[in-house]
Design goal:
With 284 residues, this protein is of the alpha+beta class. The chain is built from 12 helices and 12 strands. Helix 5 packs antiparallel against helix 6, helix 6 packs across helix 8 and helix 6 crosses helix 9. It comes from Mycobacterium cookii. InterPro entries: DUF559, Restrct_endonuc-II-like.
Length: 284
Amino acid sequence: MRPRHEPFIGSEALAAGQLSRHELRTYHRAIMPNVYIDKRVQPSLRQRTAGAWLWSRREAVIAGAAAAALHGSKWVDDDTPVELIWRNARAPHGVVTRDELLSSEEIQQRDGLFVTTPERTAFDIGRRGTVGQAVAGLDSLCAATDFKVRHVEELAGNHCRSRGLRQLEVALNLVDGGAQSPKETWLRMLLIASGFPKPRTQIPVPDADGFPRYFLDMGWEEIQLAVEYDGAQHWTDPRQYAHDVARQEHVAGLGWTVVRVVSQHRPGDVVRRVQNAWNALTLR
């Protein structure tokens, strides 16, 4: 028998005669109780999620960050715990079970698995962790699914005794699907917390023909001030750097002021630089 690269229930495979006990022990390893995979494979989050669902005897509903990843959210780490809504609380390592109220309208199938809908997933993500973590997760989920905040709020009305509703309310007021990374979410929240008006994200900058040529991370169109977060690739990739030079010249030629932020900048310095640029544009 060829080793299986996707998780499977060991006892089911043995009962069906699909492999022998020797083959199960020799070529596979358990990633959950009675759930196996090819021993050469380092399980991805998707594979661990499928394994956790199989461990639940296909009864649980996948929730939280694992559900968000199935819906297409980016920046979900492979070692993220798999959340399951299920009554069994004795979960193996890497799995979190929650005994919570869940209506049939809050469940759908995705890739053959039972998973919370985008709205229910947003409801769960927004109530947990820090506000910053919640907003980053919601931003990514919104970019992937375009869920509507009002639909999440309506769902929350059906779970008025759930924990974390106050944080959910705060997070939903800050969500923006235009964020392209958790660092952009962090930067936007820093600006809002420092008293700046909520910036628009992914601002189009037109070419001579009037069609968008570039998009600015965030900013305020009325004063043509943008703030952008530059990841390491902007400095280490020669092609990216050359693209950035041409982009910066084009944007500046249209009258935009751009404050560029990198990971080494301290929050206070970021706020000071943006404030200086704001004052220069609004007080002249």
